[in-house]
Task: structure prediction
Amino acid sequence: MEKVKYDPLSKDPSPKDLDPPFSQKKNILFWRGATSEGLSNYGTWKGMTRQRLVHLANNATLSVPILLPHKSKYGNFRYQYLSPGSLFSHPHLSNLTLDISIVDGIARCRGPDCLDQESEFSLASPVEFQSHWQNRYLMDVDGAGFSGRFLPFLQSKSLPFKAALFREWYDSRITAWKHFVPIDIRLHGLWSTLGYFGGGWGDGSEDKGLREAEKIAEAGRDWAAKILRKEDMEIYFFRLLLEWGRLTDDRRDEIGFEL
Result:
């Protein structure tokens, strides 16, 4: 994928917006990435979040407890033992599907781990980053460090799902379930979360979960528009240069502040 940034206008002679309204997006949870979380040796790849995500998404056969709407009691939920694969044909879901794959080959592995992952995963072709916006739900997973995709995802009209281990500068300024959807790094809650946002909740209404998802996506987009302005970045960079100048000055203890 090319440079990670939110730039939804196409490069055609007559540019068009590549980020459609939430209701017009494909009802897909989408992720593309590399096996860059860590060096795999002696089977350690099986515990890495990215590999676990791809395995769970493409081998959803065993029954697991999934929290879904109660068929007869509006507003109530209960755990049901289902295979995640059957979740997508559940009567309360709106044709929700997953498109989650590894690209660019297996990286950062040694010995048998490379061959094991090649046999386990079906690799996908790279995609243009701006094509992400065609999907309603965008999965964001940390690699060897924090993910650089999350902020562009917030700027879009799609809803980010975030499974993160590393702390970032905006953690105290953004609210889970208001601006984005948190997913634990073990991915235990992934299926129930998809069931929650996937469609109606068993009360006869349609698209109730989609309305909730769109509301969070809009709140995240509004936050990004207020916080990620270019003017704020320029001010921060200017203050950073001032501080750098003070630290490198021989009179650093005398300038920049008063006691």
